[in-house]
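Hi all, long-time lurker, first post. I run a small reading group and we've been trying to get comfortable going from sequence to structure in the token notation. Rather than ask abstract questions, I figured I'd post a concrete chain and ask someone more experienced to write out its structure so we can walk through it together at our next meeting. Sequence below, copied exactly:
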Amino acid sequence: MKKIINPILPGFNPDPSICRVGDDYYIATSTFEWFPGVQVHHSKDLIHWKLVAHPLDRRSQLDMNGCASSCGIWAPCLSYAEGQFWLIYTNMRSVTGPWLSTPNYLVTAPSIEGPWSEPVYMNASGFDPSLFHDDDGRKWFVNMLFDGSGRRHCFAGIVLQEYDHAQKKLVGPIKNIWGGTPLKVTEGPHLYKREGWYYLMCAEGGTDWTHAESIARSRNIAGPYESNPANPILTSYNKTHLPLHRAGHASLVETQTGEWYMPHLCGRPVENPGASRSLPFYDRNKCIMGRETAIQKIVWGDDGWPRLAWGGNDPRLEVDAPNLPERPWPAEPIREDFDGPAWSIHFQTLREPADESWISLTERPGWLRLRGRHWLSSFFDQSLLVRRVQAFDCRATTCMEFEPTNIQQMAGLVAYYNYSDFLYLRGTANDDGKKSLGIIVSDQKRYRELSEYDVPVDGIKRIYLRAQINAPWLQFSWSKDGGNWTDIGPKMNCTNLSDEISGTGSRFTGAFLGICCQDMSGQFIEADFDWFEYGEVES
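-- Answer (accepted) --
Happy to help. Here is the structure in token form:
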């Protein structure tokens, strides 16, 4: 029996919404503050997946300038009807209480590659929106309702309203159709219809260790909805022996052969070596790849409720694959040479689209040029190009030419989580104007320059930089020739590049590796990068 090995999308942020079009499957996942917005993976067998599209690729569709870390795109919903794709998304603007800023939008496209339309504004009463296409041609919009008044739980239920595409707006009454279960934090709604029943599937418990997935049903789309007596149908909470944790936030799909599967959010923790062994499991383990996407097999019981194929509600690492021919994709290249008109689809920028004024493939052909802008803790104007960490044992390498003139100018290789947590191997100029290579650590907003490990590199035009992660450790190294490598600095605990760090705002994204350039003097100095490599390595 063929197996699906979870997670199916390692290191790719979840809130997975799955959509089948004939023999093709597409999963849309969250991108938060990273641009372009929304990631879409494609598969023909539910085993092998390939990143194929970022639908929100211009500022008119997605303006995130100044948004906080882990804001931006939350929980997109992808569907297909009437010969086109429909994508619903939240552009989360603020998570500081008591009220949130949660505008929701719709874009459409004739194919997954686009072109994607300009956005249609829907509402802003809560996040995690979803669009359901009923078999009578009507369309229904659902989202969680947020209440910041303090008079009840702030996750105040799931609301439903009809969408009129001819008028491009929501119409008719708004109805709160389900308040969830005692797990609370009811969010991520998706509607389905099967054998005359409307099924409303929602995430609950919060997207941390307590995460879960529950389901309710009704004969009428507007309710009342009855809860499945076996809820939650999926959870990892208090099951520390499982390899997949934080399970929930799911969607459903039926294959062309009549089998059912459920992609869902999950996380794979590693133990923080700096934490005491006497601490509980949930206090000493961290997920440096953030929230990932796994998939489970579903069957429908005689009572009309969906359940995991093996019973219970534990997510499994290995799942029976559907009765479909395997369709693997060619292996992804590990090197980006920056020789073409565009870089790999795996790269993203922070909060804003790439612009020739600060990032260019044409100013020096065969090289990527970054012009220095703000410091890494700024919510504006970051000259940063990164890709996701997708394995516990991986390595990023680059070749840089950079001639700083003062200590305000820096460029190099960064392991980045957000404004408060990063590890940075950077070149700069000392007070005497001579170039040096050194490490900067930001750990929960605590800034340190490890100056005792600085290496003089004045007169060396081309410098090779490397970051190797063997979780939970990260080691930087450098080279003059790209062949003989020397470690720089100590082996560092990188579990601060994870979601489970408190005191620095919302944290949902997982870790990134990439290249960057800063110039706090405002002279916009350039750093040139010949290539960038990312690949898995042996532990």
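A couple of things your group might point at:
The chain has two domains: 3-320, 335-536.
The radius of gyration is 24 Å.
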